[in-house]
Each structure stands twice: as C-alpha cells, then as structure tokens.
From TrEMBL:
GO terms for cellular component: cytoplasm; ubiquitin ligase complex. Pathway: Protein modification; protein ubiquitination. One of its GO terms (biological process) is protein ubiquitination. This is Ubiquitin-associated domain-containing protein 1. It comes from the Eukaryota.
Length: 405
C-alpha cells in the first residue's frame, strides 16, 4: 500500500516504429528513457537485446517537439505528457571513412584547380613582350586628373569672382544664393532619430555625435553608444568639427557680410561688401574630414593635423590618405591652393567654351566650385544639378580631350 501511495504517476505513451507498428506503453514518470527504449525493443523486436549494441543503435524521438530523448534522463525530466507519441527509430550508420586512394585523388583535383602563384605567373609570361601601360600608370593618371581639377577650380573661382563683381546686382544675387549655405545638411540632425535615442536615456550631445558618426542610423548609433558607454573620450567633439565659438564667430561675420550698403555708399563700398561675401563663402565651406576616417587613422598613430591634411589631399578617401601618410606625401596641402597656368591650352579651351562662360556668370556656379574645392565628395551632387551640371560636364570633356592628344 505504501508503494502504491508513493509511487510515481503512470503515463500512457503511444510508441510507433518506422515499419508501422503502434502500441501503448504504460510507464512510470521516474523511468529512464533507456529503460523505456529497452521495453519498446522487447515489444517490437523480440530477441534483439541479445546484442548489447542494439540498444545504443536505436533512439526515441518526441513526435510533437521532434526532440531526441536523452537516455540518462527520466520521462518526467524530458517533459513527456500522458498520451504523447514517441517514435522508435534506428540510428543511421556513420559514413565509411574515405580510402587513401580517394583522398589522394581529391587532393590532386583541388591542387589542379588552385590558382597559380606569382612565381608560376612570372614563369609562364616570361617570354611575353612588356607593356608600358599598367595599373600604376592608370592610377597615376586618375590622380593627375583630380589634382588638375582642383587647380582648374581654383583659377575658375578667381575668374567667376571678377565677372560677378561687374554685375550691379551681384550683392543681391549672392544674398539669395548664400542662403543655401545657411542650411547645410551636414549640420542637421534627424530630430525623430535624436528623440528616440534621448527617450532611451542617452544624453542629447552624445546622441547627436553617435548619429553623425553613423549616418543618422538609430540602430547603429545605439550600438555605438552602448559600445562606448565607458569610453572616457565619448563626449569629446568629433575631429575636425567646428567648435561652437567658431560657429558663432562665423555667424557674426555672416551678418556683417550680408548687410546691404546704405544709399549714400558708392560702388566701391558695394565691391568691398562683395569681397566680404566671398570671404564668408570660403569660411563656411572649409574642408570637413570624414570623422570615421579621422578616428581610424589616428588610432594608427598619426597626428590629427596630419590625418586631416591627408584626407583633404585625397578627397576623404581613407585608404588613399593612409598611403599618402606612409609615402612621400605629394601633393602637399599647400599645392591644393595653387591654380592652373592661365596661359595653358587647357585653361584657355575651358574659358572659350560658351557653356562655361555662361555658367561663370551664375552665383550658384561659384558656390559649387567652392564646395567641390573643399569637399570633393559633394561633386556628384553638383554634377546632377541642372544649373551647374552642364558646366562640370564641359570641363571634364575638355580635360579628357586634351589629355589624350
């Protein structure tokens, strides 16, 4: 009677085999899976337990969860319920080990398909005639184009300023065109993304930094904030970022520069005002290095000023900037401010083009030149602009034409 009182609960489970046999097993919940499997084998394969390996070559699977039951666990531990269905199946035999001959043949086949190394290539091409044009020359030609384009832009900016200064309405035109500079996209922060991060508990200044570093992606910014939570420099301003004092100073000079002349002032004062506007444009279009590239290069041990110079010379391209820092560092940052020879056939051909001539009288073209000069990555934006795109297309065509002759 005591055994009946303290005995475990008896479960009725349905067992099936791959051959289609089905029966009901009554098993106490404290029975191990191995014991249950032994009972099942006795029921469906009489005499099979004479071979001790038969037990290990079979397994029980819970039909609903598709889980293989562990032999050492009890029915209760495997969470088997009354009326559950179990499958008794034979384990698959492990695949036979490959023969040595097959292994050798497979290795030989892989070796035949392997790409040749440098020595094999040099040996196979030793008798071929050498070519003067190679990848390094093509890369050098592309670098020359970028360098020459900067020189062209520097000289065209001077021409455009002189032409626009002759226009009596130049000051008013630049007041309207200059409004574009006051809405710089890089200074904007997605308010919705910022609110999401601040609602999570992140400080606003830190959230703004994270969003700018991660191109306004909330997910990436959140990962960055979590990763740098204990970083002592997490609240430091981004490298190359304009301090608040400089921004305020620029705003003050902007107000002075855009203030219109009084009725008593003559043409000389208007010209001075236009000069101040040109200075303001250059100040607001200062080069802005890619913050991620700056951090990555500074972590390699380079000084921040050297890194900014390298990115400026190489159009914010991190790999090219790294090569510049490790190489002869040519061209230098000072070379970027030099214009092209105004008597050269290239510059004369550019100035004689009617599309370029018309574009130089448009204040927006001057703004585009200034922007591309200091932020080369923005060139795509101006190439697609209906007003400045045709001018840039003509400059590129003229350069390519003369470069081939």
């Amino acid at each position: 009677q005591e055994e009946k009182i303290f005995a475990g609960k008896v479960l009725r489970v349905q067992v099936c085999t791959m051959e289609g046999a089905e029966w009901l097993e009554e098993v106490p919940e404290d029975t191990t899976v191995e014991k249950l499997k032994e009972r099942c084998l006795k029921h469906c394969v009489p005499g099979s337990l004479e071979d001790p390996k038969t037990l290990t070559h079979h397994k029980l699977i819970h039909a609903t969860s598709e889980k293989v039951l562990t032999d050492t666990k009890t029915v209760l531990e495997e969470n088997i319920q009354d009326r559950d269905v179990l499958l008794l199946i034979k384990k698959r035999a492990p695949p036979p080990l490959p023969k040595m001959a097959d292994v050798s043949a497979e290795e030989k086949r892989k070796q035949e398909q392997k790409a040749p190394d440098k020595e094999a290539i040099l040996k196979a091409t030793a008798n071929l005639p050498s070519r003067s044009a190679d990848r390094s020359v093509a890369h050098h030609s592309m670098r020359d184009f970028q360098t020459e384009l900067r020189k062209i832009l520097v000289s065209l900016i001077e021409v455009a300023q002189k032409l626009l200064a002759l226009n009596p309405d130049a000051v008013e035109l630049f007041k309207k065109a200059n409004a574009m500079l006051d809405e710089d996209e890089e200074d904007r922060v997605d308010e919705i993304a910022l609110r999401q991060l601040t609602e999570m508990g992140f400080p606003e200044s830190r959230a703004v930094k994270a969003l700018r570093l991660n191109h306004m992606s909330v997910t990436q910014a959140m990962e960055w904030l979590i990763e740098h939570a204990d970083d002592p420099s997490v609240d430091a301003p981004l490298p190359g970022q304009t301090p608040a004092e400089a921004t305020a100073e620029a705003g003050a000079s902007s107000a002075e520069a855009t203030a219109g002349p009084s009725s008593e002032e003559g043409g000389e004062e208007a010209k001075d005002e236009l000069t101040e506007i040109f200075k303001k444009i250059r100040r607001k279009r200062e080069f802005r290095p890619d913050p991620r590239a700056v951090i990555a290069l500074m972590e390699m041990g380079f000084d921040e000023k050297e890194v900014v110079d390298a990115l400026r010379v190489n159009n914010n391209q991190q790999n090219a900037a790294c090569e510049w820092l490790l190489g002869d560092r040519k061209p230098s940052p000072e070379d970027l401010d030099k214009g092209i020879d105004t008597n050269s056939p290239l510059f004369q051909a550019i100035l004689e083009n009617p599309v370029v001539q018309l574009g130089l009288t448009n204040p927006k073209t001057l703004l585009a030149f200034e922007d591309m000069l200091e932020n080369p990555l923005n060139s795509t934006q101006w190439m697609n602009d209906p007003e400045t795109g045709p001018v840039m297309l003509q400059i590129s065509r003229i350069f390519q034409t003369l470069n081939r002759t």
